[in-house]
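ok trying this again, last paste got cut off
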Amino acid sequence: MNTTVKNWYIVAVMDGEQLVGEVLYGTVQEDQTFRFYGGDYVTTSRIVWRDLKAHQVLTSSHSHYQLIGKGKKQSSI
């Protein structure tokens, strides 16, 4: 795992009624890449793969996130 995130949301980015993509937003618990400190908030690049049952997300910048706990879905305005 690269980064472990808690209190997370999958955010749908919209352009009017058109879905542009989804990003992950949450609080960093641990980051093995040393980009973030524990407690930092992170908003990722576009999600290219996700397995919410396994609590894993991969982004377009090839970052891998492990999700802790239950998350929520949100839509951007």
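PB: full thing came through this time. The mean pLDDT is 93.
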